[in-house]
Design brief:
The protein is mainly alpha-helical. The protein contains 3 helices and 2 strands. It has helices at 2-8, 48-56, 64-75, and strands at 41-43, 78-80. A two-stranded antiparallel ribbon has the order 1-2. α2 packs antiparallel against α3. The termini are far apart. 0% of the residues are buried.
């Protein structure tokens, strides 16, 4: 870090130490525990078109939700199906 700083020092406007606060969840106000866990991903390529057709058939309230989910389905190759929100949350299974 020191060697890099020496290289860019002439272009740096401010140099100060900053102690980052521990992250807290904005809903529960409890500390966020960072941990790396194994995740399961599913490719959505095989059913992308069917998903987009199904999205078109839903009555969205608010309507902006349709654009949001459509862009997610269009822009992702894989979808995480094992998000670690809390224990006991079932993993969706596609048949």
């Amino acid at each position: 870090n020191e060697q890099i700083f020496q290289l860019i020092q002439k272009d740096v406007l401010c140099d100060e130490m900053y102690a980052h606060r521990y992250p807290y969840d904005w809903r529960t106000k409890k500390p966020v525990i960072m941990r790396a866990t194994s995740q399961w991903f599913a490719s959505i390529k095989p059913f992308r078109n069917e998903s987009l057709d199904a999205i078109d058939q839903v009555s969205w309230v608010p309507a902006v939700g349709e654009k949001r989910i459509s862009s997610m389905v269009l822009g992702r190759e894989d979808w995480c199906i094992s998000r670690q929100r809390s224990w006991g949350v079932p993993i969706p299974v596609f048949y």
